[in-house]
Write a structure and sequence with these properties.
Layout lengths: L1 E9 L2 E7 L4 E5 L6 H11 L15 E9 L3 H9 L7 E9 L4 E5 L2 E2 L2 H8 L3 E5 H6 L3 H11 L3 H26 L4 H17 L5 H30 L4 H11 L4 H33 L1 H17 L4 H19 L1 H32 L1 H14 L6 E12 L2 E10 L7 E2 H4 L2 H16 L6 E5 L7 H14 L4 E5 L3 H4 L4 E10 L2 E8 L2 H13 L4 H15 L2
Helix pairs in contact: 6-13, 7-12, 8-10, 8-11, 9-10, 12-13, 14-16, 16-17, 19-20
């Protein structure tokens, strides 16, 4: 759960630090006060992308920070495996500069938005009016059904089998659609012969280029080699003269020994130079051959993909085409058999997935209808229409949520049947049903009660209260009928100081809570509105 949220120099906030509690918390305030800014901040700390400038005017950077209690042991183990230090809590901090650049840290270690996003998706769920609209998407509905049926492992098997089947099917269709003339066969055959006859080895080009480099360099230095050897080895050259010096000084053992050592060192140098000259002379003589081979390999690479690896791939492709042309029916038979086998495996998993989905339809519909009735949708009927479709990575089912909102009304797709207020309640009913199936610890509702009032709003608040017995629930609302269910009530408000606007948030005590409920219901604080607020609190307290 979220334990604390801190923002500094964030849009209208100078500084705010909120300590959240377990159970149900509501955030209220006048329109435009900045209630949703706090939910946006939580979203940014969960890895959402930032659109626009969120740094307070005149400031260099904005600091957002959220402290959460430790999640379940599975998530903690994964964090430790990934190198994050886990102690008593999780702390996420995001610093955004006024030029739009940001850094995000997890327990003081720099991380990525994608990593935080994947982590927080397992811990926290933010639900807004946009999510209610997304509920009309049949792909979202299918994902919710699979979530309810706990089909994750089965879905992975279906997706893996589909990828293999789709690949085999594509290969078969390509082979069936390909036609080749005699000229094309001749061309492909000539390409295969050209590559095979060249007999290029892996890394041969690099080795050739190194040999050419060395031979070229020696060729440039050949004159220096010859001159050095000549100076040392010519008649009456350095070695001869040093030998004569050695003979003259041979009577003096000390001097003779020194000159003798120099003589043998220079003689060794002369021998080394001769060996290098003889060795590289062969390379120099073969330089034209080496360069001709380099040119031939480069030409082949340019023609067949640009590298040794690409050329080998094209060679294999040519050979497959020749095999297809010469043994067309055999190739078709092999590909068709391969395709049928992979389709059979896919069908087995897809059927298991279909049966798993069908098996839970009745219980799911019953649960959703039960919660709808609690939310003042007494006549609502819910079912899931399921139709067979061609193979996809999600199986062979197309599903759609169908509802009937009034007696005698036929079932029709959700997007065509429910009004805004009805859709909000349906979403809440579905949230209660589906949320039980995952590891989420915190659920945030951002003004999902739009379009409802009175008893309906009261029932929605009651449902959120029911959720809060299992999860931490944060709710932004403009309805007193929802806010009255809260265990903790926060108020967001604006004030102006030195011609600057500041947004602040405070936790309300019992008196402040009643006053806020009075303002929300009647627009002002009066003995009558306060009395109504007290009655509302007593009513929800006593059930």
């Amino acid at each position: 759960m979220i334990e604390q949220l801190t923002v500094k120099d964030y849009i209208l906030f100078d500084y705010a630090c909120v300590d959240f509690n377990k159970g149900m918390s509501v955030i209220t305030g006048e329109t435009g006060a900045g209630k949703s800014l706090l939910i946006d901040a939580i979203g940014y700390l969960c890895g959402d992308r930032i659109n626009g400038d969120i740094v307070r005017k005149g400031k260099e950077k904005c600091i957002l920070q959220m402290v959460c209690s430790l999640p379940n042991s599975t998530i903690c183990s994964k964090l430790e495996e990934d190198g994050y230090e886990i102690e008593d809590q999780l702390m996420i901090q995001r610093i955004v500069s006024k030029n739009g650049k940001s850094t995000i840290k997890l327990n003081m270690m720099t991380t990525t938005l994608n990593y935080v996003r994947q982590l927080m998706n397992q811990i926290l769920d933010i639900h807004s009016q946009m999510d209610t609209i997304q509920l009309m998407d049949t792909d979202v509905q299918l994902s919710l059904l699979d979530q309810y049926a706990r089909n994750d492992a089965l879905l992975s098997k279906v997706q893996e089998a589909y990828q293999i089947y789709a690949k085999n099917k594509k290969e078969l269709e390509k082979a069936q659609n390909e036609t080749f003339s005699d000229d094309e066969l001749d061309y492909i055959t000539s390409c295969i012969n050209e590559i095979n006859q060249a007999d290029v080895k892996e890394n041969e080009l690099e080795q050739l280029q190194e040999q050419i480099k060395q031979a070229s360099q020696f060729q440039k230095n050949m004159e220096d080699f010859q001159r050095s050897i000549y100076l040392l080895d010519q008649e009456n050259g350095i070695l001869d003269q040093l030998y004569q010096l050695h003979k003259i000084l041979s009577k003096n053992d000390v001097l003779s020994s020194s000159v003798e050592n120099e003589y043998y060192q220079l003689e060794a140098i002369a021998q080394d130079l001769k060996e290098k000259r003889d060795r590289f002379q062969n390379d120099v003589q073969d330089l034209d051959t080496l360069m001709e081979r380099e040119y031939k390999i480069k030409k082949l690479f340019r023609k067949y993909g640009g590298s040794f690896e690409k050329m080998q791939q094209m060679l294999q492709s040519y050979m497959n085409k020749v095999d297809l042309i010469l043994h067309r029916q055999d190739v078709f038979d092999k590909l068709e058999k391969k395709c049928k086998q992979s389709k059979k495996v896919y069908d087995q998993f897809a059927l298991q997935l279909h049966e798993s989905r069908v098996q839970c339809l009745s219980s799911l519909s019953s649960q959703v209808e039960s919660h709808c009735h609690d939310l003042m949708l007494e006549h609502a009927k819910f079912k899931i229409d399921i139709q067979s479709i061609n193979p996809t990575k999600k199986g062979m089912d197309a599903i759609e949520f169908m509802v009937s909102m009034n007696p005698g009304q036929p079932f029709s797709p959700l997007k065509k049947s429910a009004s805004g207020g009805e859709l909000s309640r349906l979403m809440l009913a579905l949230k209660v049903v589906f949320q039980v199936q995952n590891s989420i610890e915190t659920i945030i509702f951002d003004e999902i009660d739009t379009g409802v009032s009175g008893k309906v709003a009261l029932s929605m608040g009651q449902k959120m209260k029911l959720l809060s017995s299992h999860y931490q629930v944060l709710c932004i609302t403009h309805l007193s009928s929802v806010a009255c269910w809260a265990d903790t009530h926060y108020r967001v408000f604006k004030n102006v100081k030195n011609q600057e606007t500041f947004t602040s948030i405070e936790e309300l005590d019992e008196k402040g809570c009643l006053e806020e409920l009075a303002v929300m219901s009647s627009g002002n604080i009066s003995p009558a509105s306060l009395n109504n607020a007290k009655e509302l609190k007593e009513r929800v307290k006593n059930g």
